Structure prediction request, 231 residues.
Amino acid sequence: DAEITQSPRHKITETGRQVTLACHQTWNHNNMFWYRQDLGHGLRLIHYSYGVQDTNKGEVSDGYSVSRSNTEDLPLTLESAASSQTSVYFCASSEGLPPLTNTQYFGPGTRLTVL
Amino acid sequence: AQSVAQPEDQVNVAEGNPLTVKCTYSVSGNPYLFWYVQYPNRGLQFLLKYITGDNLVKGSYGFEAEFNKSQTSFHLKKPSALVSDSALYFCAVRVYDQTGANNLFFGTGTRLTVIP
Prediction:
């Protein structure tokens, strides 16, 4: 069955280190998204991609970057981890068209702790 | 600016009773509204969406939602709650922004507890 996976599921790192969270989907979806989930904020969009080589900043993109070299993967990189980036991170994907009505499907999440 | 609000952080309901989880929205243009559910230590699962047409939308697991344009609401409902419905529920709205992007904006979530 098609699915979306994230790795690692749990990560503990230190302030200042570079961290990369992986997201892989087998639906062949054009659109992929990264969110962070924090108490009292719901889910907030970090970065998104509408296709290979396309990346865009979301609401809370500072300190994060993504790259899209193929359809299946959208890794999220924290360039220099900060304690404020301790959160649960979700990856999602959706079909390309029509974009306003299509449904996003979410991965299981990565819990990141920055000490 | 577009936004979505879930006015209740916590909803408790007895098993077998009807449940309602509230959502209101504020958008310019036509709203496209979604409900997701999150079980402990899991990702979000899609429940239902309103795009156009009938104001009553039926979704997974016996849930439904009523779109009310005059009240700008999209409340989630179920006629008879199950203990297994206990979870965190998110309402989301999708609109175009000025860059042409069309992404989801989520509410802060409502924790539903069904009491046996």
